[in-house]
Amino acid sequence: MLVLGVGVLCALAATFVVGFLLHRPTTMSAVANTSAPGVRIHLEAVGSVGSASNGRPGDPHPTWAGYLPTTTLNVPANSVVTMQIDEEDSARGLRNPFWSQAQGIIGGTFHMTYYDNNGKPQQGDFRALDTADNAAHTFAIPDLGVFVPLEALNSAAPAGSMNVITFSFRTGKPGVYHWQCFVPCGAGTIAGNGGPMQTLGYMVGLIVVQ
Predict the structure, then answer these.
(1) How many whole angstroms separate alpha carbon 10 and alpha carbon 156?
(2) Per-residue confidence of the chain (210 residues) as pLDDT tens digits?
(3) DSSP conformation class of 210
(4) Any bridge partners for residue 169, and if so which?
(5) CATH for 26-209, among 2.60.40.420, 3.90.550.10, 3.30.365.10, 2.60.120.260?
(6) In the 8-state DSSP scheme, what is residue 82?
(7) How far is CA 17 from the centre of its chain?
(8) Which residue in 28, 48, 70, 141 has its CB near the most CB atoms, within 10 A?
(9) What is the pTM assigned to this prediction?
């Protein structure tokens, strides 16, 4: 029994090391923005990384929410970064309505193409969501003062559709900056703040400014 118990503990420890400590997301570098100054990054926010159309095969946590293809992003220093995030997840809601307002982005607004309650495509520039309950995720870089709420995909939207959110921010000096989602989307964890909310490659990432 002792040997069996030790074996089980070793297996659990190995699973933890491989699944959490050794699992690191790949790195994606920004590309030149052909329609505006600076560089561009294109991400996709999904409810489960394993079931998305361009999900990560063999991911150790296929049911977790996450950003695809990765959350480690290389961008140049002292530059304008334009983000396009394709939001495909349903509403999860923000616990603090203050975070439904965009902050730290150029012009103070984000552009969004979305679907209304009749399933019709709409678009416009916004400073905030109509209600914090409509948030699916957020993109936030606290050290740079950047915070953008991501509107959830309307249930009336056609199958396979997405909301497309675009915004720009400025980088400063070289460094490594933490970014994350503030919507508690770690289902099955304490207060929804575990799992993908605490693991690189899902709802937590790094902005490498160089």
Answers:
(1) 48
(2) 666 665 555 544 444 444 444 457 899 999 999 988 999 999 999 999 998 877 888 899 999 999 999 999 999 999 999 999 999 999 999 988 888 999 999 999 999 999 999 999 999 999 999 999 999 999 999 999 999 999 999 999 999 999 999 999 999 999 999 999 999 988 889 988 899 999 999 999 999 999
(3) -
(4) 81
(5) 2.60.40.420
(6) E
(7) 24
(8) 141
(9) 0.86
